[in-house]
């Protein structure tokens, strides 16, 4: 069974180089790192980098966060109108699911699930913009704020009524963060609550093709979003596209760590790129013989040539 798949947004990870890799391996669509509506309104230069879309990647949605309807509407229009020709977003995706403290403290992300009236005002304001430019509006949510306020199905109905055309739902509350297990029952309730024409993408604990099949069978959702599991295994999207489990070889994993490092350095420069690549390469080599020592060396590397030599040596060691 072939499965519709999405790369879930993750700050510091789902930048353009990684999205391109996932696209080459078969992901159906990607989502950018979270983009602050307030930062766009204040013309923050660093935010522009998050908005870049490559012609080589799968359809990419630009994900906005914020709680002010006017700011969100302005930011959505900026993202649509200033995108380069041929690199426009496939959708504007509003994040109402992020559980990180610095996001929810400002009333953004999953904090909006505590204030449905504010969330509704945001969605209606952004939809007026996206409808005018014929760009779909998507929203990502969680099960609710905590175990006493699981409101995903009611929230999803509101989103559908306001013009949302795709909903991604993470089967945990904000209080749960990323533990314990995701609740497929919540995802099923959202699928049952909104019209069939609106795709529902399930998110949470999809670490393999088998997990994706299980989620679809248990919830009836239309596809799955993969987050943390893809960081060292973007081949999971190949499994979804081909309908069968694919296991990358050790050589493929090390080569991909090298490729991602080079691409990130090319985009962000050596100083910033190598700093970011340390943790990202670690996801690819985890569990490989000798990787613990290599991770320590990578954490001390300061140049692309040094980084590449360390990873190349790890690959050579596997051949002994």
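Q: What amino acid sequence fits the structure above?
A:
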């Amino acid at each position: 069974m072939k499965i519709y798949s999405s790369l879930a947004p993750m700050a510091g990870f789902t930048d353009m180089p990684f999205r391109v890799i996932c696209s080459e391996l078969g992901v159906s669509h990607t989502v950018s790192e979270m983009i602050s509506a307030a930062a766009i309104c204040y013309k923050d230069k660093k935010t522009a980098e998050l908005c870049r879309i490559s012609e080589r990647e799968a359809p990419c949605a630009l994900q906005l966060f914020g709680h002010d309807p006017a700011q969100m509407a302005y930011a959505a229009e900026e993202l649509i109108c200033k995108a380069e020709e041929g690199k426009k977003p496939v959708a504007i995706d509003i994040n109402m699911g992020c559980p990180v403290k610095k996001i929810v403290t400002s009333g953004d992300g999953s904090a909006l699930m505590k204030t449905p009236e504010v969330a509704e005002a945001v969605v209606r304001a952004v939809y007026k913009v996206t409808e005018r430019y014929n760009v779909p509006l998507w929203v990502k949510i969680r099960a609710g704020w905590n175990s006493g306020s699981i409101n995903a199905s009611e929230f999803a109905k509101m989103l559908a009524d306001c013009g949302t055309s795709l909903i991604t739902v993470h089967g945990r509350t904000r209080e749960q963060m990323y533990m314990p297990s995701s609740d497929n029952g919540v995802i099923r309730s959202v699928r049952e609550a909104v019209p069939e024409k609106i795709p529902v993408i399930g998110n949470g604990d999809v670490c393999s093709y088998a997990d994706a099949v299980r989620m679809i069978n248990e919830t009836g959702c239309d596809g799955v979003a993969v987050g943390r599991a893809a960081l060292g295994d973007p081949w999971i999207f190949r499994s979804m596209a081909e309908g069968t489990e694919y296991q990358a070889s050790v050589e493929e994993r090390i080569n991909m760590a090298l490729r991602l490092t080079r691409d990130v350095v090319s985009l962000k420069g050596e100083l910033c790129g190598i700093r970011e690549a340390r943790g990202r390469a670690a996801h690819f080599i985890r569990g490989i013989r000798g990787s613990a020592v290599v991770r320590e060396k990578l954490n001390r590397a300061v140049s692309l040539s040094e980084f590449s030599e360390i990873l190349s040596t790890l690959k050579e060691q596997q051949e002994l």
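Q: And what stands out in the fold?
A: The chain has 14 helices and eight strands.
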